[in-house]
Write a structure and sequence with these properties.
Radius of gyration: 21 Å
Strand content: 5-15%
Oligomer: single chain
Strand order of the largest sheet: 7-6-5-8-9
Distance between the termini: 59 Å
Structural class: alpha/beta
Largest sheet: 5 strands, parallel
Shape: globular
Helix content: 25-40%
Order of helices and strands: HEHEHEHEHEHEEHEHHEHHHHHH
Bound molecules: phosphoric acid mono(formamide)ester
Number of strands: 9
């Protein structure tokens, strides 16, 4: 029987550490449900910062974030860069095409050379599964997996969960349909781990070769099942998540043509009508409009695709903040104590003020 998620585990415990008790964020598989909820709760706090006139706080002043991207990206790279900047970190972007990788340097040599410049975080996107783990093993900097081949994309699953929680107020007990090219999807893998850890049930559907039955065994406990038809997976679903067809990862023809894919597997308004009346529609982007998702669904009232992007920024701010660990908080507390705020030492509520101060706008000048 599937493990019942302890309600207590779904709330951030007051005793929980301020940071994540780990150096790197490489996948959802290795996170506990309590850690996932801690990231989501922290991201809620950061979401407000992007609504302010001054969208910058001093939390990570003096820290350096390197975005090392070996594959194209719009959302992930931009939001990690913005997340770093809004937390006052120095951010640097490196893409494979403009790096010495084009001259034959290996990923690990590139990482060692970047490490020699003492960054605090290296955010890596790479076409090979396991690349982020390899980098994290040799670097002192915190490693963040921004997508490794068809393996994991942890911050995408976290932002998806934040979006679902925002609109459904829970994840436990939800029925989530994930449609399309599951086989090549790191987004699907990370989501399978996250959603089932938090007590949702997942149905997978798409062309047979892209949704092999073994995918249902990726997580134990029977919370995942594969369906033969899109309609079967969508029926009474609370959440419908559409995946991009990843033609760049497909080494053989998994379906006859894009037109046939759209006809048999695309999410149309008619297919969506089988979901629950309050079902929400998600897509990690980039979308192939008219292929895996019809334009009127992508732009429809149930679509949360741009909410996902907005939440991506908050989640990435939270991840940087939490991986910085207690140290950013500890420095702020030390500063607060050194300034002679004796009350802050006595009063438990005021003790949290140091943390809140980190979220105050950067003073002008
Ligand atoms: N969802 C996602 O990873 O998008 P990008 O490839 O644009 O980063």
């Amino acid at each position: 029987m599937r493990k019942k998620i302890d309600k207590e585990e779904q709330r951030t415990d007051e005793r929980a550490p301020t940071g994540l008790a780990r150096k790197d964020l490489l996948g959802i598989r290795e996170l506990t449900s309590a850690e996932i909820v801690h990231v989501l709760d922290t991201a809620e706090t950061f979401r407000d910062i992007s609504q302010r006139e001054i969208k910058k706080v001093p939390t990570l002043r003096g820290r350096t974030v390197i975005n090392l991207f070996f594959e194209p990206s719009t959302r992930t790279r931009t939001s990690f860069e913005l997340a770093g900047k809004r937390l006052s970190a120095d951010t640097i972007n490196i893409s494979a095409s403009t790096s010495s990788v084009t001259k034959g340097e290996t990923l690990l040599d590139t990482a060692r050379n970047l490490e020699a410049m003492s960054p605090d975080f290296i955010v890596l996107r790479h076409p090979s599964a396991g690349a982020a783990h390899a980098l994290a093993r040799i670097c002192r900097a915190a490693g963040i997996n921004a997508g490794d081949g068809a393996h994991e994309h942890p911050t995408q699953a976290l932002l998806d969960a934040l979006t679902i929680r925002q609109h459904k107020e829970r994840i436990e007990g939800l029925e989530v349909a994930i449609l399309g090219d599951v086989l090549h999807s790191r987004v699907a893998r990370s989501n399978l781990h996250l959603l089932t850890k938090l007590g949702a049930r997942v149905r997978l559907a798409g062309p047979g070769p892209l949704v092999p039955p073994e995918l249902a065994t990726l997580v134990a406990g029977g919370a995942v099942r594969t369906a033969h038809r899109i309609e079967e997976a969508v029926e009474d679903a609370d959440v419908v998540m559409v995946l991009r067809i990843q033609r760049e990862r497909q080494t053989s023809a998994f379906f006859p043509s894009l037109r046939e894919y759209a006809v048999h597997y695309g999410l149309t308004r008619k297919r969506l009508s089988a979901a629950r009346p309050d079902a929400i529609v998600m897509h990690p982007g980039p979308m192939n409009r008219g292929i895996e998702i019809a334009s009127d669904v992508a732009d429809g009232t149930r679509s949360l695709i741009l909410d996902q992007v907005a939440n991506g920024l908050a989640v990435r701010m939270a991840v940087l903040y939490l991986l910085a660990g207690g140290s950013a908080l500890a420095q702020a507390q030390t500063r607060a104590e050194a300034s002679g705020a004796a009350e802050q030492r006595r009063d438990k509520a005021n003790k949290n003020a140091a943390q809140l101060a980190l979220l105050e706008p950067v003073p002008a000048g």
